[in-house]
Amino acid sequence: MKFLTSISIASLLFGITTFASADQIQGNPQNGEQKISMCIGCHGIAGYQASFPQVYKVPKIAGQGAAYIASALNAYKKGDRRHPTMHGIAVSMTDQDIADVSAYYSTLGKDANFTLSDTPSVPDADVGALIQKGACTSCHGSNFSKPIDPSYPKLAGQNWDYLFVALKSYKSGLQASWGRNNGIMGGVAKQFSNDELKLIAKYIGSQDGEIKTVPQSKFR
């Protein structure tokens, strides 16, 4: 039971949903490169900040798992994640578009010679207790960059302020134009104060990881 709960918590933390029909569609990175005009204006600029529902750096998606990117886009499309800009983009995409764009970003910036340590930096006792309570490593790996399922996100090195907003969004649940809907993660996030969620996000964001922002021109 504890193991299953850990998997549920970690997998649902960032809106992971399995879409059977989407799973059957093969993404093509070359085709995806022709479909990212709506993505590069934010995700192709290092340090770019969104201002809704608060100011934070948009997530790094280059090198992220394709299955996770697809599940996130589908969540924005369905409304399980509420964000006006991302919803507008996601609803304009077909399942094939989502698969192609996800495949493209999963390969973008890959370095075949890069080796990631399996051992993250040791957190202080307080942060370590929070990480254990949240069962974060059960699904995302001891280094937060080797999830046990391809539809789970790599977290290490992600912009901490984005991670913080994501956690608070689950804590708040769905609001009129923001928030994330997940009964399990909502209950988990409510165990933590916002200050504790910030500590978790800062620690995970400080770890070495594979995800990055690859600068891309709007003029393609």
Q: Please, could you describe this protein's structure?
A:
This protein is mostly helical. It has one domain (2-112, 119-205): Orthogonal Bundle (Cytochrome Bc1 Complex, Chain D, domain 2), CATH 1.10.760.10. Helix content is 48%, strand content 4%. It has helices spanning 2-13, 20-23, 29-33, 40-43, 66-78, 84-91, 95-107, 125-134, 137-140, 160-172, 183-189, 194-205; strands at residues 49-50, 56-57, 81-82, 179-180. The radius of gyration is 16 Å and the shape is globular.
Structural class: mainly alpha
Number of helices: 12
Low-confidence stretches: 1-13, 15-20
The radius of gyration is 16 Å
Oligomer: single chain
Taken in chain order, the helices and strands follow as HHHHEEHEHHHHHEHH
Looking at CATH, the homologous superfamily is Cytochrome c-like domain
User: What's the overall geometry?
Assistant: globular
Q: Beta-strand level of the residues, as a percent range? A: under 5%
Number of strands: 4
For the largest sheet, list the strands in their spatial order: 1-2
CATH class, named: Mainly Alpha
Question: How far from one another are the termini?
Answer: 50 Å
**Total domain units:** 1
Q: What fold name goes in the CATH topology slot?
A: Cytochrome Bc1 Complex, Chain D, domain 2
Mean pLDDT: 88
How does the major sheet shape up?
A: 2 strands, antiparallel
Helix content: 40-55%
The CATH architecture assignment turns out to be: Orthogonal Bundle
